[in-house]
Amino acid sequence: MTAIAVHATPTRWWHSRAVYRFMRHHLALVGIAMITLLVLACAIGPYVLPYDSLQIDLRARFAPPLSGDHYFGTDPLGRDLAARLLMAGRVSLLVGFSAMLLSTLIGTLVGVTAGYRGGWVGAGLMRTVDGFLSYPSIFLVLALAATLRPSPVMITVIIAVTSWMETARIVEAEVRSLREREFVQAARMVGLSRRHIMFREILPNAMGPIIVAASLAVARAILLEAYISFLGYGIQPPMPSWGNMLNGAQQYLASAPWLAIIPGAAITIAVTSFNFIGDGLRDALDVRDDHI
Amino acid sequence: MSGFLLNRLSQSIVLLVIVSIIGFTVLNLMPGGPLAQFGLDPGMTQKDVERLAEQLGLNRPLWIQYLDWAWRLIQGDWGHSFRDGSSVLTVIGRHLSATLLLMGTSTALAIAIGSWIGIRGATHRYSLFDYCATVGAMVALSVPTFWFGLIGIYIFTLKLGWVPAGNMYTIGDGSVLDYLHHLILPSLVLSLVHVAIWSRYMRTATLDALSQDFIKTARAKGLSERRILLKHVVGNALLPMITLAGMQLPSILTGALVTETVFTWPGMGRLFLDSLGYSDYPVVMGLLIFSAILVVLGNLIADIVIATVDPRIRLA
After folding, report:
1. Closest C-alpha among B221, B236, B220 to residue B119
2. What are the residue boundaries of the ABC transmembrane type-1 domain, all occurrences included (chain B) (predicted)?
């Protein structure tokens, strides 16, 4: 009985209308292409480039882009900017992606519980969501990052625990609207456990909005990591991240503007791509546009 | 109306309680907890710290400590800055106006520019302008504010020399013009993200309004397209903007912190970062709680304003 509700159409997923609509969304395809390129470059690039990201060469300080073998120039210590950019990309993308996974997990758990249980439990959980949302995210993240030791894992956790609320709200609304539907009543009548109904019956039907929120959450996590690393409380040198590469760039803005321009462009490209993908997914999965 | 007010007020109070619990949790996560200042003092032994903890009641159950702390917050006793010993609320008060000036200017700019783009995009739907505005808004939402600030300084200060790169005024000047001169670039930088949000919102709202029956009536009456837009469409689209402005408060505050850092603007954001750098936890905690209270109150005010202006909400 339950299997019918979930697997009603036995077609392959790539024949679905959602995939078709996504493929027609040009910006989303641009986003996918750019992210693929970025990920490949960050994964393979460091092995191909002639320089190591930590290799200091004081004779080659502040080399402008396209000088010799330094495609993107060098930084104040003579380290190759291209090599650093790609290593930083690994860190930034990984932190962004892991933070998204963790925050989506928290948000989904809270949202499903609050939406299905309702009553005092639901109200309490959703008011907690409102409470977290009242804090400007960067104040909370900075206070936590300055307090706890800022390892990459800790930064990921901090970003996740301060950005799960959107997902929780979306999932809660979705689950609340599904709670009294016939297939859920049927499952309840058959005597399935609450956990089974929450996560095996209702959750699969709420996946669309979760996927959309997740793709936008990657964008936001990358931005947030860049913000706190730029301010000096995120990923700590010598490990490069796109944010902390910009950390000292302001003082060299007049003499070496590429130090600021290039990593910032990388952040913008990555974040824009994930936002494009999210937009395409929203159209493809037919998710109602709640926040403009 | 009073029922609505009372309901909304009690919601805000519940929210403030939850906000304070979150804040208290963060406070206890900090190294050394509330006694961090003495941990750094070489004149204090471990025994002294323990005695102090007992005197201050830090060995009591957590919930009693929380009530005690919350009661002192309500009374306005937010602790004292480690740096200069002045009370936390005084320190925040010194930096509040600079931040409010920056936030106010950039919000006004964002609403003006965003509305124009949004309305034009809706009236010229699927035009090149509309397409560029849509893509542009999505890119604008993806640009890190600090990077936009750095690029702005590079172009408008270093290359063109039009505006100063930072600070709120030139020492020894301080005229209104001088303030404005310093305000232009940071407020533009801060407004970018919100221009994107407002323009998206305004486009949807205008399209929505344009499809309503009363617009057809207005057209049938023979009103000019311009008058219809300004009076009937914009008028209807503007009201929910107040709510949206309230909802945007946290993100404006986040943007303000970053912008203030890049432009050495002497506001709350700079104060927050400086205090973090000096491990001045009372001020950090104070600002954390203060920013959340600002957001809760901002939303409350937005709702009250909406309820007074919009006749449809009065019954709720």
Report:
1. B236
2. 96-306
Quick check: is A1 in a domain? no
Cα four-point dihedral sign A168, A173, A176, A177 = negative
**Residue A11 — left, alpha, or beta (φ > 0 → left; ψ -120 to 50 → alpha)?**
beta
pLDDT value, residue B36: 58
Chain B residues whose CB is inside 8 A of the A135 CB are 19, 22, 250, 288, 291-292, 295
Of A231, A279, A292, the CB nearest to B204: A292
Q: Can you give the residue range of the structural domain that contains A46? A: 17-285
A292 is a domain residue: no
B257 and A257: CB-CB below 8 Å? no
Task: Determine the pLDDT at residue A107.
Answer: 96
Give a yes or no: residue A12 inside a domain: no
pLDDT digits (tens, 9 = 90+) for A116-143: 998 899 999 999 999 999 999 899 999 8
What CATH homologous superfamily does B95-268 map to?
MetI-like (1.10.3720.10)
Domain count of the fold of chain A: 1
Q: What is the CATH number of the domain that holds A116?
A: 1.10.3720.10
The 10s digit of each residue's pLDDT in B33-64 is 556 555 556 666 777 777 777 776 677 777 88
The complex scores an ipTM of: 0.84
Is any Cβ of chain B less than 8 angstroms from the Cβ of A138? yes
Query: CA A135 to CA B296: how far, in whole Å?
Result: 9
Does residue A2 form part of some domain? Answer: no
Interatomic CA distance for residues B121 and A232, integer angstroms: 40
Nearest to A264 among B135, B147, B261 (CB): B147
